[in-house]
């Protein structure tokens, strides 16, 4: 199948744009490859320190003859998605010993739950935690004793942070080992209805808590298609998971077998063998183009519009939102998973899942087939799915037909002809909107604005009955430099209620929305942000604004707005408490949302 011309041209544009930084990055990685792990070059005292706690592996490590695997883990039992990782290190150690290798936990990285911190002060650390995770990864691998690494992480900022850290050590092979989604509980749409009833005062907190605990009820990722599960999709489309491994439930024999095989596979890719495949060769420009195409085809989380840019820059690859927008124009929406539909990720997996989608997209020229992956050369490895037999794991060709066209559809009959993203530009600046779940009649909103500097003030105005007509709610001073760019997902119930009443309503913000949001039009990640003096800082209550996802525009209709003095905000309350004081350097150094909102710049 001939490659789609837009995919080819966007990829070539990325390659050309990235040539200087990508070339410098690869030069550093080749130098690191030639040096190799420094176990043999450590002093006797250094080696003794490195192996002291290795137990039965001490002798093998001292000989420096066996492949040694580093484990970077985001385990904690605060996150349901990461609780299964508690047992993974021993599973990994046992698996590699059987093939003559060794493994050690190189380090742990922090992992916070955005579901717990929604609307709370702790959410202001969430985005910055990604870069802290990358730094923690680097600390863990800095001992320079490993031939390859496995990465245990699933959720929102964790996988992007691990990918950034892995690329700094891009001369090492890297395999990402997922934990899988929790089994299905209360349907996500039923949970959303209870949230709306609570926002309207129709049910009490006891009923709300009961519904939430019925939806989030056990180990594994939350089952809606938010940032965590979008991460898992990307790891398959970009070749860092074993094929078909993303959505296998925790606690199953197949899940454990995949963890064992992932550990063995990582060692097999090291420079000690004949199939050396460092992560710097896996994550090239084509892999990132494939990741963007997967994001569009599945209607994935808007958070990845920031994270993919930051992840790419760690490998010297420069992406911009126009790349996403152009690919969105040619990649159709092939999946409906909540909040874009009623199905959860378990239903999606059963209907054919990622293997079916990758097969469809490859057959129609919407993915680069010639990428390197941890499963071997070529993305065609990822149209297979794993099975556990008496002889162990084996991969078989997956379905080439959707098993439920209400969840997955072929390219010839998509849910919509374009992907889930609209890039908006105009006199207010540049923003992005996830439109895969926004009905077409809601994609253009022209209305007066109400301005807020805090999401709690917007919710208070709603409870006071102040929103009676068409309105665009602007929540500003929510960018990365202002307060760490917290998600504003807690605004979703009130916005949904207003839209359900027949009001024309939209959200415009220089902050973020969650991957769980979608049915209300939200122009997010506005740049320049208010703290940088962007036009959003000059708007006042009653100004007219037009949000047009169809034309891709975001325009202030009231004349001479930017001739006013810009608004200022007292952000002192965002500087302290819940650890925020420790992240003051991050707020001072962070780049804009369209460059990845990272403190690292171009690595």
Automatic annotation (TrEMBL):
It is an enzyme of class 4 (lyase). Catalyzes the dehydration of 6-phospho-D-gluconate to 2-dehydro-3-deoxy-6-phospho-D-gluconate. It comes from Parasedimentitalea maritima. Residues 69-380 form the Dihydroxy-acid/6-phosphogluconate dehydratase N-terminal domain. The keyword Repeat does not apply. One of its GO terms (biological process) is Entner-Doudoroff pathway through 6-phosphogluconate. The keyword tRNA-binding does not apply. [4Fe-4S] cluster binds at residues 155, 222. This is Phosphogluconate dehydratase. InterPro entries: 6-phosphgluc_deHydtase (IPR004786), Dihydro-acid_dehy_C (IPR042096), DiOHA_6PGluconate_deHydtase_CS (IPR020558), ILV_EDD_C (IPR056740), ILV_EDD_N (IPR000581), IlvD/EDD_N (IPR037237). It catalyses: 6-phospho-D-gluconate = 2-dehydro-3-deoxy-6-phospho-D-gluconate + H2O. Residues 407-597 form the Dihydroxy-acid/6-phosphogluconate dehydratase C-terminal domain. Belongs to the IlvD/Edd family. Pathway: Carbohydrate metabolism; Entner-Doudoroff pathway. Its cofactor is [4Fe-4S] cluster.
């Amino acid at each position: 199948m001939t490659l789609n011309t837009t995919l080819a041209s966007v990829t070539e544009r990325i390659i050309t744009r990235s040539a200087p930084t990508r070339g410098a990055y690869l030069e550093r990685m080749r130098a690191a490859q030639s040096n190799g792990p420094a176990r043999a070059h450590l002093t006797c005292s250094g080696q003794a320190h490195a192996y002291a706690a290795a137990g039965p592996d001490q002798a093998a490590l001292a000989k420096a003859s066996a492949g040694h695997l580093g484990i970077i883990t985001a385990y904690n039992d605060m996150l349901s998605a990461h609780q299964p990782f508690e047992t993974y290190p021993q599973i990994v150690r046992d698996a590699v010993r059987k093939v003559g290798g060794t493994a050690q936990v190189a380090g742990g990285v922090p992992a916070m739950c955005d579901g717990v911190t929604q609307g709370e002060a702790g959410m202001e650390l969430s985005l910055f935690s990604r870069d802290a995770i990358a730094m923690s990864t680097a600390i863990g691998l800095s001992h320079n004793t490993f031939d390859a690494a496995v990465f245990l992480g699933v959720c929102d900022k964790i996988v992007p942070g691990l990918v950034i850290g892995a690329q700094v050590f891009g001369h090492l092979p890297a395999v990402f080992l997922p934990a899988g989604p929790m089994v299905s509980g209360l349907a996500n749409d039923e949970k959303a209805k209870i949230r709306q009833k609570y926002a309207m005062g129709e049910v009490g907190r006891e009923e709300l808590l009961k519904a939430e605990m019925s939806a989030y009820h056990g180990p594994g990722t939350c089952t809606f298609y938010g940032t965590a599960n979008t991460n898992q999709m990307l790891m398959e489309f970009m070749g860092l998971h074993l094929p078909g491994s993303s959505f296998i439930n925790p606690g199953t024999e197949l899940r454990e077998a995949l963890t064992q095989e992932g550990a063995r596979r990582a060692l097999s890719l090291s420079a000690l063998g004949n199939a050396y495949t460092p992560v710097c060769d896996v994550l090239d420009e084509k892999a990132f183009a494939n990741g963007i195409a997967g994001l569009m085809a599945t209607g994935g989380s808007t958070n990845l519009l920031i994270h993919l840019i930051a992840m790419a820059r760690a490998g010297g690859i420069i992406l911009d939102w126009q790349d996403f927008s152009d690919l969105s124009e040619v990649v159709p929406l092939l999946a409906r998973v909540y909040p874009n539909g009623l199905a959860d990720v378990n239903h999606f997996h059963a209907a054919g899942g990622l293997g079916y989608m990758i097969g469809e997209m490859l057959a129609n020229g919407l993915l680069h087939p010639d990428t390197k992956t941890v499963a071997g050369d070529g993305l065609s490895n990822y149209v297979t799915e794993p099975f556990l037999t008496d002889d162990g794991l084996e991969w078989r060709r997956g379905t080439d037909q959707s098993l439920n066209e209400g969840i997955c559809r072929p390219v010839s009959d998509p849910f919509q002809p374009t992907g889930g993203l609209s890039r908006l530009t105009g006199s207010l600046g540049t923003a992005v909107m996830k439109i895969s779940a926004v009905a077409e009649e809601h994609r253009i909103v022209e209305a007066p604005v109400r301005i807020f500097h805090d999401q709690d003030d917007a919710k208070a105005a709603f409870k006071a009955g102040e929103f009676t007509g068409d309105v665009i709610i602007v929540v500003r001073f929510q960018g990365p430099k202002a307060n760490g760019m917290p998600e504003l997902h807690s605004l979703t119930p009130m916005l949904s209620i207003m839209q359900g009443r027949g009001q024309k309503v939209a959200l415009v913000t220089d902050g973020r929305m969650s991957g769980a949001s979608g049915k209300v039009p939200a122009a997010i990640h506005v740049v320049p942000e208010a703290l940088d003096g962007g036009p959003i800082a000059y708007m006042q209550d009653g100004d007219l604004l037009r949000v047009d996802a169809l034309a891709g525009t975001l325009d202030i209709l009231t004349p001479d707005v930017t001739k006013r003095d810009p608004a200022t905000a007292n952000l002192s309350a965002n500087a302290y408490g819940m650890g925020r004081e420790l992240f003051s350097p991050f707020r001072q150094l962070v780049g804009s949302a369209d460059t990845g909102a990272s403190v690292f710049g171009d690595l």
